[in-house]
Amino acid sequence: MYTPHPRRALCCAIATVLAFGALPATAQTTAPSTTTDRDEAKTLDSVIVTVERREQDLQKYAGTAQAISGDDARALGINNELRNIQAVVPGLSMANQEGNLEIFIRGVGSANNTELGDPGAAPHINGAYIARPRGLGGMFYDVERVEINKGPQGTLRGRNALAGSLNIVTKRPDLEAFGGYVQLEAGNRDHQAGEFALNLPLGGWAALRFAGYKVEKDSSFRNAGDPRLDPAGIQNEKGGRVSFLYQPDDKLSVFAMADMGKEGGTGYPGANIWTAACGSADPDTCPNSPGLSPDDLDLRNVVYRGPQGTLDSTNWGAMANVSYDFGPIVAEYNTSYRDVDYRQTNAASEGIMWPGRDVSPRGPDNPGGFDYDNFSTQYWETLSQSTTHELRLSSSGDGRFQWTGGAFHFNEDQQVGYLSLSDKGTWFSGTEFTMPRVNGRSTALFADGTFEVNDRTRLKAGVRRTREAKSRYGIGGNWALGLPGTLAPGVDPSTPVDFSTRLGTEGFAPAFMKRPNFDVTGLTSPADMARFLLQGILQHGQRDTIAEQIGGVANGGDFGCIDRPDIGGDLRDCPYQSWAQVNSIPSQQFGESRFQFNDWRAGVEFDLTDDHMLYATVSTGHKSGGFNDTFDVNVIPETFSPESIKAYEIGSKMSHRWFGRPGNFNVSAFYYDYTDQVFQDLAVISLNPDGEPAGYSLVNRNIGRSAIYGIEAESVTRFGAGFMLHINALALDSEIKEGTVGDARSQNYAEGGVTSLIDLTGNELPLASRFTGNIRLQQMTELSFGSLDWQLLASYRSAYYLTQYNNRDVTYVDQAGNFVRQETAAEAGFPDRQRGEVTLNAGIGLTSLDGRWRYELYGSNLLDNDVSQKALVGSRLNIRFLNDARAYGLRVRYQF
C-alpha cells in the first residue's frame, strides 16, 4: 500500500490552501459591487469569539476555530450532552469515563484522568480554566456559544492547551432589557427536563441574570443480569447559575458569576467486551468465550450483578472579571474558584450479553450457573479545590502595535480515593489508592503583540514562561488475606484449602478520607496490618466477613474462622491453619515533580483584500508532566516530563459573494511535531530471593514522538429563500515515529505480570480518523402566524483506532523474555478499531408571531449507531465507553 511521505503530503496541502485561497479572491474581485449587493452581504452575520482572549470576528482570527451557538446546539438535540457537539466539529473527539470528559482535538489529548493526570485540551467556562472536567456537561445550559480552538494554545491559554481549548461562554446579563424564558421538554427514554433564565436590569448600569435546569433520563444501556438492578447511565441532574454585570461607564466593567451543578443517578456506563471478543486458542485464557467482533455485538446489553451503581457529584464555583480602561492601558483581573465533590460506585458487571450466553443464576439445581452474589466493584471519591488568578495589561486604542502581557497563577488541592474490591477473594481482596494531600501549582508570565507593518500586513509574536510543581502523599496498594482451612472429608485433594473473604456486600462504604491514619511506616505486625485494613472501612456490608475474620488479630488476638457456604465452607472446615496471615496492606505513596518550560508563537497576516486574509503561524503548547506511583518506599518515584507540540499552520480566510450569494470560505493546512509523548512502559517493581524480576507494573514515560498533518476546510453560504449551508471537512494523517512500550494486553500474571514489548512505530494515534466532515443545511421561513425554521446535520467520521496498539498482534513472553505464544488482537480479546459511521441530527422549530412562544422537535443520532468513543485495555479488560444513543423529543419555550 502506498503511504505518502509527510513532507510531500504537507507540501500538497500547502499548495491546496494557496490554490483555494486564490480562487475565491478572484471571484470576489470580479463580482460587481452595488448597493443591493452590500445590503445582502450583511445578511451573513459575523461570529464574535474570544479565542485570542479578546472579542473579535472569527473571520479575522489567524487560526482554525469554530463556534457553535447555544441555539444551534439546542436545535440539533445536543441539549446538556456536551460531548455530542463533536458531531458538528471535525477533528473533535469527546468521551466520558467516570464523569471525566476527555477531549481530543486532531488526535491530541489525554486519557489520564487520575489525580496525577491532566487534560490535553484545556476546558474553560467564560475563559476560566477548569482543572478537573468532571460534570462539565452540567454547565451546558443558558449558553451563548461554545468555542473550540484547534492547535496548541500555549501562549494564549497556557496550562494544558496542548491540543487546543474548549470554552463554554454563558449568556451574560443584559443591562437594558428585562426578560427571560421558561422551557420544558420531554423525549424518549422517559426524558423530562426544564430550563429557565431571568434577566433583571438594575438602572441601566448593572444587571443580574439567573438560570437553572433539571433533567431526568433513563439509560440507553439494558440489564441482562440481576433484574433487581438498574443499568448504569440513568441521569438525574440539576444546576443553577447567577451572573452579575456592572458597567457604570465605558471604562469600568465588572462581571461575576457563581454556579452549582448536582449529578445523581446510576453512574457513568462502560462495558467490558473482553469475554465476548476473546477467541484465544489457549484453553486457559477464555474457554467459554465466543470470539465475536464488536460490530456483531449489542454493546449496550450488559450483565449487571452485585452492587447497584450510584453517582453523587456536586460541582460549584465562582469567577470574576474586572477591567478598567486607563486610556493608553487597559488593566484586567480574572479570578476563579471551583470545587468538585465526586463520588461513584461503579455498576458492576460480567461483561456484555451475546447470543447463546447462559446467565441463569447459580443455585442448588444449577451449580454451574452465574454467580450474581458477587459484589466486586470500584468506589471513587474525588475532592478538588482549584483557584486561578490572572492579571493582564493590554494596549488601548487603534495604534499600529497592540500588545498584552501579564501573570497567571493556578493552585489545586485534591483528596482522592479509589478502592477496587474483590468480593470472595482469596489472598487478594482489593486495591486501594487514597491520597489525602495532592497539590498542583502553576505560575506563568506571558506577553503577546501584533504589529501592523502596513495597511495589509501584520506580524504577531508571543511568549509564555511557565513553572509547575506537583506533589502527593497517601497510600496505595493491595488488601490481601490468606485464610487456609482444612478440606472437608471426601473433597478432591487438589482443591485449594483457602477460605475466601466477603467484602463489599449490601451497605458497604469505604472510609477514604475518614481514615484516622495514612502513615504506614513501621506497620509490620499482624495486629497493625489488620487494624489498618479495617480502618479503611467506614461501614461494613451486611454479609461481609472481614471484621470477624481479622478483627481479633487487630486487637492482638487470633483469626476468627467462619464456616459459611458463600466463602467456601461447604468444601473446607475450621480452624485456620497456622500460616493464616494478613499478607498485604497498601504502602506509602509520595512523589514530587517540578518543571519549567517556554511556549511561544509567531505569525504573519496579509490581507489580499478587505475580505480575504492569508496567514502563517508557528506555535507551541505543553501538557503538564508528573510522577508515577511509589513501588519502593526507599526510592523516589520516577517522573515524566511535559509533552510538547510545535505546530505549523498556513491558511486562508475569505468572505465572498459567489453567484450573488454571501458566504465564507476558510481553508488551512497544518503540521504538528509531537515530542516527549507519554506512553506506558513496563517497570520491574519487585524481585524474588534470587534477584530475578517477580513483579511488574506499567509506568508513564516520555518515550514517544509523533507527526500529525492535515488540511481543514470550512464553507458557509447563504442562499435565497432563507437557506444556509455549512460544510466542514478535515483530512488528517497521524503517525507514531518512535515508541517502544510494554504491551498491557499481554500481561502474564503466571510469570509475575511480565508483558512483552511492542514497537508502535508506524501506528496511527488513537481517535485520529483520517477523515471527518459534516454538512448542515438550515432554513428559516416567515409565515403569516410566525416563523418556521429547521436544520439537518449529517456528519461522517472514518474508521479509527481506540488505542495506540492499532489491532497489532499480541505476543506473550515469560520472565526471561522468551516467546510463549502469539495471537491476533481479535483472538486475544482486544480488537480496537471503530468502523466509520454516519450520524444524523435534525431539528425543526416554530416561533409565534410575537416571538414569545417556540415549539421544537429535535433528534440526535437518528440512525442509532453504537460508537465506541474510548477503550480502556489491559489484562482481560477491553472496556468500551459509548456515544449517546438515539434521542428525540419535544421542547416548548416561553420567552418574556
Care to describe what's here?
There is one protein chain. The chain is 7% helix and 51% strand. It is mainly beta.
Q: Which class of secondary structure composition applies to the elements?
A: mainly beta
User: What is the CA-based Rg, rounded?
Assistant: 29 Å
Work out the number of β strands.
Answer: 50
Q: Percent range for helical residues? A: under 10%
N→C terminal distance: 62 Å
User: What does the largest sheet look like?
Assistant: 22 strands, antiparallel, barrel
Mean pLDDT: 90
User: Globular, elongated, flat, extended or rod-shaped: what is the shape?
Assistant: globular
* Tally of helical runs: 6
| Percentage of residues in DSSP E strands | over 45%
Low-confidence stretches: 1-10, 16-42
Write the SSE topology.
Elements: H1 6-30, H2 35-41, E1 48-49, E2 56-57, E3 64-69, H3 70-75, E4 92-97, E5 100-105, E6 122-125, E7 128-129, E8 143-150, E9 164-170, E10 179-187, E11 191-201, E12 206-217, E13 222-223, E14 235-246, E15 252-265, E16 271-272, H4 274-277, E17 301-304, E18 310-325, E19 329-345, E20 349-352, E21 378-395, E22 401-421, E23 430-452, E24 457-482, E25 486-487, E26 509-510, H5 526-535, E27 537-539, H6 546-554, E28 572-573, E29 581-584, E30 587-609, E31 612-623, E32 626-627, E33 639-640, E34 643-658, E35 661-687, E36 693-718, E37 723-738, E38 740-742, E39 757-759, E40 771-783, E41 786-797, E42 800-801, E43 810-813, E44 819-823, E45 833-834, E46 837-848, E47 853-860, E48 868-874, E49 877-882, E50 887-895
Parallel strand pairs: 6-9, 13-17
Antiparallel strand pairs: 1-2, 3-8, 4-5, 6-7, 8-9, 10-11, 10-50, 11-12, 12-14, 14-15, 15-18, 16-49, 17-20, 18-19, 19-21, 21-22, 22-23, 23-24, 24-29, 24-30, 25-28, 26-27, 30-31, 31-34, 32-33, 34-35, 35-36, 36-37, 37-40, 38-39, 40-41, 41-46, 42-45, 43-44, 46-47, 47-50, 48-49
Helix pairs in contact: 5-6
